[in-house]
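Appendix B, example 12.
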Amino acid sequence: MEAQNRIEKLLASEGHIPVGRYFTGAEVIRSVRKLGSAIVVCGFKLRDMTATELAENLKSSAVLLAVTSPINLDFCEGENLFKLATPVSRSDFFASLDILLQLEEKSLRPRIVRRREDEQQLILTAKKLMMEINRMSENEAHRFLQKKSMDSGLKMVETAQLIIDSYAH
């Protein structure tokens, strides 16, 4: 959980917005199949499978970046699995991510996107409202927005606008 928080903050610091945060390989597989393609950043082991097993399940639709200890990396393999040893520097992390984005741009159409400034502000406003009114933490508000967006089939920015509109009335 702590590693997920650090990676999510790292991605957000460069304007990359993850599509989701998952604890099991089954959740990742469902999400990637729904999206059609993805770049998945994961550790060595999810609750129900290893990175190698996940890579095998997602061979035709996702590329994985396994970020874990050098010892665990020895057990990771797969044609769509890229490895990055911890501790990892910010520059190495983004260099690896950039390589994956470039390599897979044509075939996978990655879902890690940069949001426009106005969209980021809208999402931030919705999170602040939920934090103030519903006494949520920033992470809880963010997860709520993500989950409601996925469940409803709306973009996160559209869900944020609905929340803002609801509190305005």
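Residues 2-114 form a domain with the Rossmann fold fold (CATH 3.40.50.2300). The radius of gyration is 17 Å.
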